[in-house]
Amino acid sequence: MTPEPFDAFRYAHDRHDQVAWLSQNTNHLVPPEVVRSALDEAIRARRYEGYPLGSGDPELLALVQQDLGLDGTVPCLTSGGTESLYMVARALLHDGDEVVASDPSYLIIHRFIELSGARPVCLDIYRPPYRLTSEAIAEAIGPKTRMLLLIDPLNPLGSGYPRDEVRAIAELAHDHRLLLLNDITYRDFSDGHALAATFAPEETVTIWSVSKNCGLAGMRLGGLLARPELQRSIARYNTNDLGVNVLAQVAARAALRTKASWIGEVVRTTRANDRRIADVVRGIDGARVLVSPSRANMTVIDIAATGVAPERLQEELLRRHGVFVRAGTYLSRTYGPRFVRVSFSNPPADIERFARAFPEALAALRAGAPAPPAR
Ligand SMILES: Cc1ncc(COP(=O)(O)O)c(C=O)c1O
Question: Distances in Å between the alpha carbon of 82 and those of 31, 166, 206, 208, 234?
């Protein structure tokens, strides 16, 4: 019998209290008291017994608007930004449409694009400046182009867009009458971040999330924002007629109410962790960080020159060291076999574990260490 392939997520979830979780760009730095008392109170009041207000808690909706500084439309709440991305693809893309996107990218969006019969046209960004440019996009626009995908900052590279580039890309969308999908999941980690909607309000659909900035990934709350008519046409695909998770809304409201008081420290620790990881990688022959500093809470480490396969490194780090990073294959078919992605909105102790484990694991695999024993 062939052994079952190693399931890293299953393994890590089984041991979640022992694992340094550097694999999903989650945020483990928000002070827990920020949401704890709000959740305690909602649970005591058994808010989960009833449905929430279908359109969403009014204060939460106002806080999201305020946070983004985009007024006009009331945001649509969905189960994570992911569901909004799905709705946008279903509602706005059709057979034969093309979407200008990148490689590497957050490929789940590409899957949604393909489900709608459209095709992502992926521009290579595994080279400086490690992001799309308005020139490259302009060249890629053709008669079938319907949408531009602007993920800013970018998963997995951690790169981001200067304000002038966002403006130039927004102008392209406007001039060519294209939709602009602006995924700003990691916005709070990026100094001077610019929203595409400020430059192309007609064309832009903004996808926001509280998963990463507010440390609420498990709550599954995010949403979208677009001009009213466009948002209505997307919302036809909203399955949350009865609202999204009531406890998630309570937690997000508590986090957004207080965000200004703690986000600075979260970002400072994230940046310090980023520098520590870059230092560690700099000392390893054959490994390199591509984008430093990151504008998000993650970075890509290219290990192609070490000859070690990212999946082997992922498994070695997880099983022998309790450090969970992510092999690149789910983020790029072309470049995935070259890299691992590491996220770092974590307590510095997790980063120190990485600092010890990463060189050791790579050295062991280079020396031909056998695969860790089966569970
Ligand atoms: C670029 C990007 N968009 C969206 C998401 C999904 O966010 P959510 O947890 O809000 O569904 C992620 C998650 O990693 C992401 O990296």
Answer: 25, 22, 12, 10, 14
d(CA 138, CA 176): 9
Q: Read off the pLDDT of residues 156-169 as tens digits, 9 standing for 90 and up.
A: 999 999 999 999 99
| SS3 category, 298 | strand
Which amino acid is residue 11, in one-letter code?
Answer: Y
Distance, CA of 181 to CA of 186 (rounded, Å): 15
Say what the pLDDT of residue 373 is.
56
- Pair (274, 143) in one structural domain: no
How far, in Å, CA of 133 to CA of 150, rounded?
10
Give residue 341's domain range: 8-31+260-366
The continuous run of DSSP H or E covering 343 comes out as strand 339-343
Q: Is 209 in the pocket of ligand 1 (CB under 6 A)?
A: yes
Structural tokens at position 335: 């470049």
Q: Decide: 222 in ligand 1 pocket, CB within 6 A.
A: yes
Structural Rg of the chain based on CA atoms: 21
Instruction: Specify the pTM.
Output: 0.96
List the CATH number of the domain containing 197: 3.40.640.10
The angle subtended at Cα 157 by Cα 152 and Cα 161, nearest 5°, is 30
Which residue out of 24, 79, 106, 213 has the highest number of ligand 1 atoms within 8 Å of its CB and is therefore the one to mutate?
Answer: 106
pLDDT band at 375 (very low <50, low <70, confident <90, very high): very low
Q: Which atom of ligand 1 is nearest to the CA of 154?
A: 1
Task: Judge whether 66 lies within some domain.
Answer: yes
Last residue of a domain, one of 229, 258, 287: 258
- What pLDDT does residue 49 have? 98
Closest residue by Cα to residue 323 from 352, 303, 353, 347: 353
Q: Give the SS3 label for residue 212.
A: coil
